[in-house]
Design a protein that fits this description.
Blueprint (H helix, E strand, L loop, with lengths): L2 E4 L9 E6 L6 E2 L4 E6 L4 E5 L4 E6 L6 E2 L4 E7 L50 H6 L4 H10 L17 H14 L32 H16 L2 E9 L1 H15 L7 H15 L5 E3 L6 E3 L5 E3 L1 E3 L2 E3 L2 E2 L7 H16 L13 E5 L18 E5 L3 E6 L4 E14 L5 H16 L7
Bound molecules: oxidized coenzyme A.
């Protein structure tokens, strides 16, 4: 007797489009063969056969919208054992968030009532809400359930943030080495945020987070809870540097190039990385080795209407100040026009996050792992500085260096900012 094949748990998608039907009536398929491809607004994924058999009827066509539980085709089982055990009870009483092979019916056991959902496999404290919302294919969901991994905690490294099997493996490896966020007797255990009806207290409007918001949020959360942060503050006297910069501005403005303070900061940071090579490192995946880099790629945090992105200026040590200023103008435009490619945002050594154009006196940036330090820059202002006899008005630039205390000691943090300050306060021509 033919069984129904239903769309398994594909995550929190209400409707995805069928973009490919990979089998025809009469085809013989093996368990796990791909049957159809569906596409959400993020990426495509394939729906596999729950067991081997012959396709007897197609229930979807190209362009149809399907969701979890949609009937896609009928299959006459070949008699092979289904790929997963199934409950004897029919769909209605099965758990909602299920393993990704719902159509793995056992026709021998319940021929009339092919269960629509299989029981969860080893659901070790999985948060079903965030699991359902995670962006991953059915096979990755199955793999995660087998390992008891909560997909909601995994950062997706695939296209458009999709979680791949490699991401799940890396997550497990990390948990094994460092202790994970959801293990008993160790790691971070926090109460889930309760669901709150904010409308109870007044008018509200719900707006979806952008994809960039969601991705950045996951990375920042991971970095915040896994890296022991220390932030070192300093103020740098940029009176002379600012005068020098302002003198350069008109000439380059005619060529459409903005000579900004940030370009000088990039050069100063490169000098800092050369002086203190430990700031130009990353911990490897085992957490046992430091990788020293001989290249100098500087990330620049750029605020866009869709969220924060960090394009990278490559080989900043080999570029002049004007070249860096030109490139920064270009990447800022690219970022705001959503034209950055993943490669434009990879391979950074240290990130600079400047809020100087906006305001504020200080802030504590979060390290952009796998980098080990990030420089936050706030708005420069004239301050009275004691010269031994009287106060001089000086333009002081607030610097905030957050670093990974596993790699960098406090003394080195202070040495780095002191060095940076002295470079910025020194001869401006040295930074050209
Ligand atoms: N002190 C005083 N004035 C400053 C300054 C500082 N530290 N930094 C910039 N300014 C001035 C500039 O000189 C410019 O003035 P003019 O218009 O008179 O030339 C003005 O502020 C605006 O600068 P800008 O912000 O457009 O340019 P920028 O080169 O300083 O920064 C960029 C470029 C892309 C970094 C910035 O636009 C941006 O996106 N910043 C936000 C980064 C961010 O969100 N970080 C937070 C990450 S942690 O959540």
């Amino acid at each position: 007797m033919a069984i129904e094949i239903l769309v398994p748990d594909i995550g929190d998608f209400d409707g995805v489009e069928v973009i490919e039907v990979l089998v025809a009536v009469g085809d013989t398929v093996q368990a796990e063969d791909s049957l159809i491809s569906v596409e959400s607004d993020k990426a495509a994924m394939e729906i596999p056969a729950p067991q081997g058999g012959v396709i007897t009827e197609l229930k979807v066509a190209l362009g149809d919208q399907v969701a979890e539980g949609s009937l896609i085709m009928m299959l006459e089982p070949s008699g092979d054992a289904p790929a997963a055990e199934v409950p004897a009870t029919p769909a209605a009483s099965a758990p909602v968030a299920a393993a990704p092979a719902p159509a793995r019916a056992a026709p021998q056991a319940a021929p009339q009532q092919a269960p629509r959902r299989a029981a969860p496999m080893a659901p070790a404290k999985i948060d079903e809400t965030s699991f359902a919302k995670a962006y991953a294919s059915p096979s990755v969901r199955k793999f995660s359930r087998e390992l008891g991994v909560n997909l909601g905690s995994v950062v997706g490294g695939g296209r458009k943030g999709r979680i791949t099997q490699e991401d799940v493996k890396a997550f497990v490896k990390n948990v094994m080495i460092h202790g994970g966020p959801a293990t008993d007797g160790g790691g971070l255990q926090v109460e889930p945020m309760p669901e709150i009806d904010f409308g109870k207290w007044g008018e509200v409007e719900s707006k979806k987070l952008t994809k960039i918001n969601k991705l950045t949020g996951k990375f920042l959360h991971r970095n915040w809870v896994t890296i022991p942060h220390v932030t070192q503050f300093d103020d740098s006297d940029i009176t002379e540097l600012e005068a020098f910069r302002k003198a350069m501005v008109p000439e380059y403005k005619e060529q459409g190039i903005r000579i900004t303070m940030l370009a000088f900061l990039v050069k100063a940071v490169v000098a800092g990385l050369k002086e203190f090579p430990r700031f130009n490192t990353s911990l490897d995946a085992s957490g046992e080795n430091l990788i020293y880099k001989s290249y100098y790629n500087i990330g620049i945090a750029v605020d866009t209407p869709d969220g924060l992105v960090v394009p990278v200026i490559r080989d900043a040590d080999k570029k002049s100040l004007v070249e860096i200023a030109t490139e920064m103008g270009e990447i800022s435009i690219k970022a705001r026009d959503k034209k950055l490619k993943p490669a434009d945002m990879q391979g950074g050594c240290l990130t600079i996050s400047s809020l100087g154009g906006i305001g504020g006196t200080k802030f504590t940036p979060i390290v952009n792992a796998p980098e080990v330090a990030i420089l936050g820059v706030s708005r420069a202002k004239i301050q009275p500085v004691w010269n031994g006899e009287s106060f001089d008005p000086k333009l002081m630039l607030p610097l905030a260096l957050s670093y990974d205390h596993r790699v960098i000691d406090g003394a080195d943090g202070a040495r780095f900012t002191t060095f940076l300050s002295s470079v910025l306060a020194g001869a401006p021509e040295e930074l050209l």
